[in-house]
């Protein structure tokens, strides 16, 4: 969703008077509300992978009355193309994906070599089918409000003092093959705490275990926010961070879009495919012969792509970040 803002920026630049509404899962609404280019968020009332033809038909009929001129589809699934088709939106643009002839009437054939990055594939859909050259890639930039930050601080009993804040994001929804060891995060936290930093741990309810492991190594001196914040609060609070260290995760992309100084750690995934889109971000990847493997768990059982990436390397990357 964060990477999609790059597409919204391209669309708004080309058509300043256009209104961009985004149909997406309800959880993404706080992200969309922090994108100035987005006029409105429409909640998609479907679970991941759910067909629910009746729900799609009702939503398509409702959208038909809204008078949209074009729908741009970012998912490549057949199911995702049903609603714009049912809504009879005149121009329905997207990659052909799962043989979506008819459902799309402005379909494109993806050249994965020419467009290796996800954000390039998104942004190419803003241009005519025969457009030459690579698409423009403006960096996402989420906009937070001071009043929302203050409300989040008050709700969680936090204060932004004079000490700099290091935000750590040790979880990864995809699986352990994307997670730098919790002990390393904990040692990194300790070093910063001893140098008069505050350390805040970010994550969802699913990240409570790994965050508790990090905090245990740091003698319980971190502020563990995992599972305690809404997504909106997490975004607003991360805007206060002076530096962020994160696995390849959604929160990593949020930190980049907030223009935070960021070290992004890659293990089983490919930094060339979904990199953080910010000139203040530094990617760390050992690029071993066995990576990227794109597996949830290390198929070789050693996790060398992450275990061999040292705390000192991360500390040095933080020191090298532009201010």
Q: Would you kindly provide a written description of the structure presented here, covering whatever features stand out?
A:
By secondary structure, the protein is an alpha/beta fold. It has two domains: 4-124, Glycogen Phosphorylase B (Rossmann fold, 3-Layer(aba) Sandwich), CATH 3.40.50; 146-320, 3-Layer(aba) Sandwich (Rossmann fold). It is 32% helix and 14% strand. It has helices at 4-14, 29-32, 53-64, 82-86, 118-124, 146-156, 182-194, 208-217, 231-238, 250-257, 304-307, 311-320; strands spanning 21-25, 40-44, 70-72, 91-95, 106-108, 165-169, 198-201, 223-224, 243-247, 262-265, 281-284. A six-stranded parallel beta sheet has the order 8-7-6-9-10-11, with helices on both faces. Strand 7 (198-201), helix 8 and strand 8 form a beta-alpha-beta unit. Helix 7 (182-194) crosses helix 8. It is globular, with a radius of gyration of 21 Å. The mean pLDDT is 94.
Structural class call reads: alpha/beta
Number of separate structural domains: 2
Largest sheet: 6 strands, parallel
The shape is: globular
CATH architectural group of the largest domain:
3-Layer(aba) Sandwich
Given as residue ranges, the uncertain stretches (5+ residues, pLDDT < 50) are none
Main sheet: which strands, in order across?
Answer: 8-7-6-9-10-11
Q: Tell me the strand percentage band.
A: 5-15%
Radius of gyration: 21 Å
Question: Helicity range of the residues?
Answer: 25-40%
- Given the structure, what is the number of helices? 12
Secondary-structure element series: HEHEHEHEEHHEHEHEHEHEEHH
Overall pLDDT level:
94
Tally of DSSP β-strands: 11
């Amino acid at each position: 969703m964060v990477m999609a803002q790059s597409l919204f920026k391209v669309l708004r630049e080309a058509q300043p008077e256009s209104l961009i509404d985004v149909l997406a899962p309800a959880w993404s609404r706080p992200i969309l509300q922090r994108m100035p280019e987005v006029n409105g968020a429409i909640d998609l009332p479907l679970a991941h992978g759910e067909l629910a033809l009746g729900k799609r038909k009702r939503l398509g009929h409702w959208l038909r009355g809204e008078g949209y001129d074009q729908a741009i589809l970012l998912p490549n699934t057949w199911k995702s193309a049903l609603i714009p088709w049912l809504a009879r939106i005149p121009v329905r643009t997207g990659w052909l994906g799962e043989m979506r002839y008819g459902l799309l009437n402005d379909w494109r054939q993806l050249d994965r070599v020419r467009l290796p990055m996800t954000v390039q594939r998104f942004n190419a859909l803003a241009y005519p089918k025969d457009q030459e050259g690579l698409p423009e890639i403006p960096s996402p930039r989420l906009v937070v409000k001071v009043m929302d930050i203050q409300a989040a601080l008050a709700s969680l009993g936090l204060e932004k003092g004079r000490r700099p804040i290091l935000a750590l994001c040790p979880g990864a929804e995809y699986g352990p093959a994307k997670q730098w060891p919790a002990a390393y995060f904990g040692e990194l936290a300790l070093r910063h705490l001893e140098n008069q930093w505050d350390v805040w741990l970010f994550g969802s309810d699913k990240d409570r275990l790994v965050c508790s492991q990090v905090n245990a190594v740091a003698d319980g001196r971190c502020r563990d926010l995992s599972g305690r914040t809404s997504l909106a609060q997490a975004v607003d609070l991360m805007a206060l961070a002076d530096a962020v260290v994160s696995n390849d995760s959604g929160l990593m992309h949020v930190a980049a879009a907030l223009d935070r100084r960021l070290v992004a750690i890659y293990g089983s995934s490919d930094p060339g495919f979904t990199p953080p889109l910010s000139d203040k971000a530094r990617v760390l990847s050992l690029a071993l012969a066995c990576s990227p493997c794109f597996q949830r768990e290390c198929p070789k059982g050693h996790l060398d792509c992450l275990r061999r990436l040292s705390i000192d390397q991360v500390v040095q990357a933080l020191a090298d970040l532009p201010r």
